[in-house]
Structure formats: C-alpha cells, structure tokens
Amino acid sequence: MGHALSVYTVAQIARIVAPTLFEAIVGRVEREKIDRRLRAFGRRVVERTRMRLTVTGAERVPLDRAFVYMSNHLSHIDIPVLYASVPSPTLRMVAKTELFRLPVFGHAMRVGHMIEVNRADRARAVESLRRASALIADGVSVWIAPEGSRSRTGALGPLKRGGFYLARDTGTPIVPVALSGTYDVLPPDTLRMKPDMPVDVVFGAPIPIDGRPMEDLMSEVRDFLVTHVKPRASGVGAM
Fold first, then answer.
1. Rounded to an integer, what distance in angstroms lies between the CA atom of residue 139 and that of residue 65?
2. Is residue 235 part of a domain?
3. How many domains does the chain have?
C-alpha cells in the first residue's frame, strides 16, 4: 500500500501540472484556479493516506495580508500537509533549483509562480528573493524552510538567513509553523508512504519585524520550533 500511496500522490501532482500548463499555452493562467488546485491536492493526499491531521493555531493568522511562513522540513509530504492546512488563501513555495530542471514539472512550477532558489549561485539566489518580494507585494504568502533542506534524522537543523532577509527587507511578518509526524509518513530515501499516521501542524502568532535584529528573529522562530515540534516515537526530537 505504501508505494501505491506514492503513485497516488504523483498522480495528484499531475492533476495540478496538466491544466496549469494548458492555461499557460492559451494565455489564461489565473492565480485563484492554481490556489484551488493546490489546496485540493493537499486535502486529497491527506485523505488518501488516512493521515490523522491535527491543526492548531490557524485562527492566529489574519487572512487579509501576506506572510512569510517558516516551518521545519521533515519530508516531501510536508508540502501537501501545508497546502491542506495553511490559512492564507494564496501560498507559493521556495524550492531548490533542481526541481525546476525537471521536464514539464519544472515549467509548471514557474508558471504557478513557485520561487526557484539556486543556493550555489548567490546572484541568482538574490534575484529569487527579489521575485519573492514582488509576490509578497502582490498579496501572496510565501513558504520557506529556513533549514534549507529536509532533515535526514527528524532533528531540527541550523536555520539559514535567506528567508529572514526576505521578511526583513519586505517588512513582512513571519508565521512560524511546527510540523510533527510527517517524517514517519514519508521518511527520506524511500518512496514507501505509511498510512494512518498522526501529523500535527502548529501555527504561531505572526512575528512582527519592526526593525528587530536578525538574530532575534531567528531565535524566536527556532524557539517556537523547538517548543512545538514533537519528538519522534523513536526518540529523535526537535533538538
């Protein structure tokens, strides 16, 4: 069943990619349609895996402005979980450049205004943050994993500064998000998904920027994650 769930998830991604590319060809890409597809994708994956999803704190997030969402990153399954639970009506993600090189899928990501980051090329990384800034100015919330990549153990890694620069330079409040349980649904280095797993998503109150030092912002986000990410059953915790 685990591999079948992975195949199902890939099929759901195709349900987003195909109509988005068609709309790009005919010149009728609409943000609201992409928003609906992304949310439906998240909800279908959560339902099919029989994930026992608990969402806490979404009511803390106003719906009338954009935010920079920052979460820990445990698994590829984090993405549908976030789309199933983030309260903001429009959310786009910062993703590594390797995903944008994939045929068809990468083009659909660009059409859908996902944000490419090439960590090996500083100039291109800075340009990516500029594009993210333009989206935020247009009312689009942005998700970024400040660890930079998935945890290989479930433990929280060091936080990188890029997303914090984005929030600071645009004056956009940060919403910290603690994810627990997704590692066990789809661990690294496997395509076998586990059904019926408990997953918790905890949203913090938006953190205002207000000219605060970068180190303060990073510490507040890290403290939230350390406090709210639950230890794995195997004993590997957020620390």
1. 6
2. no
3. 1
